[in-house]
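re: ur question from earlier - yeah i can do the single chain one, its not a big deal. heres the input i used so u can compare w yours
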Amino acid sequence: MYIHFPWCRKLCPYCDFAVMVAHHEPPHEAYRDAVVAELAARAAAVEGRRLRSIYLGGGTPGLWRPDCVGDVVAAVLAAAAAPGPDALEITIEVNPTDVTAARLAAWRDAGVNRVSIGVQSFDAAELAALGRDHWAGDGPRAVELALAAGLRSVSADLIAGTPAGLVAAPSSSPPSSSVAAARGAPAASIAALIATGVPHASVYELTIEPRTRFGKLARRGALVPRPDDELAALYEANHRALEAAGLEHYEISSYARPGHRAVHNSLYWSGAEYLGLGAGAASFERRADGGACRPPRPPPGPTGGGPRPPRPDEVVELGADEVAVDRVWLALRTRDGAALAEVAALPGAARLRARLAAEGLAEEVDGRLRPTLRGFLFNDRLARHVVDAADPAGYNRPPTS
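and the output i got, formated as tokens:
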């Protein structure tokens, strides 16, 4: 289950998520009540289902009062068939300045057993360039406190590939990610992250989204993204450093020590069902015929009434063939890859396997088609091949060049 909390202290210049700036305090109780009411309205979607993850994302749910978090978690556990506490992952996304010993204890009391900390960089100049509201020392301090709190797991997010023109001046002696990209060396933040001992890390390439402040700067030529070859060199260097430190590269942007893979994200990549609650949340439900649907959040009803049922035109339906294609390309975002039996169900499977092997994008190991490091780097191309393989008339035709 995904629960979206849309408020942040400030809007980061690269952020294209569904967020709002809380200039004072977010409406803690009112939003709790709205999420619990939405859960009640969608009770049929969770009744009797086996719950494996609750993920509070945002926005910055670390701003939500822990007692309100606890009330929402309790409502979810009452509505769904939850396993024992040791088997259920409950994650909250937080910023470094949200993390204190008192708040960690309150989150634990609320049922949270995993925190994901938006460190983004350990480099002061990069943090300023990215418009973050914390200092370089706040990231390692937050990770240290979280690890000491005895949670089931702790994750840290980093952003790689900050354009060199945004970084005002060189900071400490190790290279920032923008400088490291040109040298083919891992970013300074990677070494700092490894030094914390954090068991899970997500390293995302900075994406310039059109509707953001960075997007506007890019259109004016005031921001120039790093060249693709530099970003590829940085990705490979970060990969080598993290794997050498014992963190497995198990998904395009994610690394984990044994036993610390993110359950929630792994469910997405395996095509599992999920229910989204809150302002910007989406859902995914499977059908008995192999198809699936993406229902909208409950539309508002008449004034004074509850939510009305969604109209048929408001529900996105996916056929069984579409679901099969999605399962393969989503699985190929992960090191485990897709079962060859699932790949074989695609009409253009034979040519797909040959093309992925010829281009060095995937390899067949132990009955599975698994992406190579090159396959991670060019995953959009890999996914395009999978989608095209669903059209045998075009995909099985010999290439023209």
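DSSP finds 16 helices and 17 strands in the chain. not sure if urs matches, ping me
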